[in-house]
Structure formats: structure tokens, C-alpha cells
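=== Structural record ===
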Amino acid sequence: MRPWLAGGLLLSGALFMGLAALGLARLPDLFCRMQAATKSGTAGAGLLLLGTAVYFEDTQVATRALAVVAFLFLTAPVAAHLLARAGYNLGVSLFRTRTDELRERFGRGGAEPGGTPPLFTPDRPAPPGPPAPPSAP
């Protein structure tokens, strides 16, 4: 019974990871892709790790797998939120949206009062790039 349960968990995890990959390839914009990668990817990785813990029947393996699952569930949504907010503040376009509910609160790239200031402005230019390689004689 235990190998069947482990196989079911591993197969379910692989299907979720496949859905995450499909979402990354097919969804239209950054924010939809990020949702697919975060939700399906985290669920898939969690199921794969739980299937591994069930298969090996070892408390050490199970403890490590559960610790990694907890770490994934705590960090992946936060990282996706921060990346999405950075993309929004940089002005990444939204797909087929008529209203932008966050514009009033955050602005778009500092274009409105109260928004995040732009990264580079005329009074604060971009830092210089790396030096040019020396030319060969």
C-alpha cells in the first residue's frame, strides 16, 4: 500500500509541476505566469517531497522533507509577491485590464504622487557600466 501512496504523491507532484511549466509557457503576462509558477510549482514540489518521505519510510528523510515543504510554503509566496511588486513598479504591462486598482495606492513607477520613485532620473543618472576591455595592439 505504501509504494502506491508514494507513487500517487509523486505522480500528482509531477502533474502539478507540469501545469506550472505549461502556465509559464502559455499565460500572457508576468503576473499570471508568476501565479502559475508559485502556486502549482509549490504544490508540485511539496507533493514530490511528501512522496519521497512516504517511499523511504525513514524519520530522518521525512523530517527533512517536511522542513523543506514548510520552507517552500513560507518563502515562495513572499518571493513571488516581491517580484510582482517590483515588476509593477517598473511598469510591466498588465494583460487586458481596464482598471488598475493599485495605481491610486502605489502609482506606476513614481508617475503619480505617493508612488515609488523611479530608479533613475535626470538628477540621479544610472551608474556607469563596466569599463571597456583594452584594445589589442
The helical segments are 2-26, 30-56, 59-90, 103-106. The radius of gyration is 22 Å.
